[in-house]
Amino acid sequence: xxxxxxxxxxxGNEFFEIVNSxxxxxCPKCKSDNVERVYKGKFYGKGNCSGGCSTxxxxx
Length: 60
Ligand SMILES: [Zn+2]
Fold this sequence. Notes:
Mean pLDDT: 78
Bound molecules: zinc ion
Radius of gyration: 12 Å
Number of strands: 3
Structural class: mainly beta
C-alpha cells in the first residue's frame, strides 16, 4: 500500500490516493479513469528531487 500522486488527463486535477497494487484509480473531481501517475517531490516540500537523490529516503 502506498500514497501515490496522480494527475487527471481529462480535467487536470491533481490528487493523491492510497492504493493497493492494481486497484483502479479515478479522478475524484470528474470520475474519469484517464489518470497518470505523478512521480514525487512537490507534495513533500522537496521540489528539486526527482526521486533518485542519495538523501531520497525522506522524499517519497
Ligand atoms: Zn478529472
